Amino acid sequence: MVLATYNIKGGVGKTSAAVNLAYLAAREGATTLLWDLDPQGASTYLLRVKPRIKGGGSRLVRGKTDAGRRIKGTDYDGLDLLPADFSYRHMDLHLDASKRPTRRLSRVLAPLKREYDYVFLDCPPSISLVSESVFEAADALLIPLLPAALSARTLDHIDEVARDSTRRLPFFSMVDSRKRMHRELMESFTAQRPEMLRTVVPLAADVERMGQARAPLEEFAPRGGAAVAFRELWKEIRERLHR
Ligand SMILES: Nc1ncnc2c1ncn2[C@@H]1O[C@H](COP(=O)(O)OP(=O)(O)O)[C@@H](O)[C@H]1O
Ligand SMILES: [Mg+2]
User: Fold this and answer.
1) What ligand 1 atom has the least distance to the C-alpha of 7?
2) What are the pLDDT digits (tens) for 25-62?
3) Which of 173, 178, 208 to mutate to test the pocket of ligand 1 (most atoms within 8 A of CB)?
4) Beta carbons of 46 and 214 less than 8 angstroms apart
């Protein structure tokens, strides 16, 4: 099953979700791969793997290289990583140049789907060919949303572009529940959007600390509210997927 953390915007918690959820999936015994599609390589960094400087990641996306040869192990059992590649920043061009751009990613993913129970795609923030490919390739989109009025547009946009068969699992991210505005917004939003997950990821210093720890939350702050939230989120996602 292919799960993509996606939002048009950066800085909303896509990478944090991808790393923590992939970790939790692997810890349960599922064979899990995280593919870092963002040339900035944040999830590659958090999992302590070196990004490829000019490794021809675009060749991979064009189907000219075998993905298996680029996969790295991580410090965690059952969790592998396909590291970020700086050439992904040209990926739009490469996808565009190929005949059926949106099929490429699906084709590269086909053997990986057979090999892994879960493939997480950590997406760059964009509305582009890359995201169209992701919409086509993913079984479900995990969409972190800030509790802000504009977030409604993100979902509207995805509704326009993604296929109906691609499930959307949006959830609130970076929530300060002491803020009345956050609470009110979430309440009205959830009333209009029944697909919203019930679990909310709080705004928490622990999540920021992942950058220093270079590790998933479970490894250094398992009792904190953020780790609790991600465990709950993963449980809810699994229930939705297997319903
Ligand atoms: N729930 C949260 N609470 C506090 N900081 C967060 C939270 N989620 C993400 N951050 C911080 O915000 C920044 C962007 O998060 P990241 O997960 O990289 O977002 P994206 O992948 O969408 O750009 C990072 O510095 C991260 O540590
Ligand atoms: Mg990111």
Assistant:
1) 22
2) 999 999 999 999 888 899 999 999 987 766 556 666 66
3) 208
4) yes
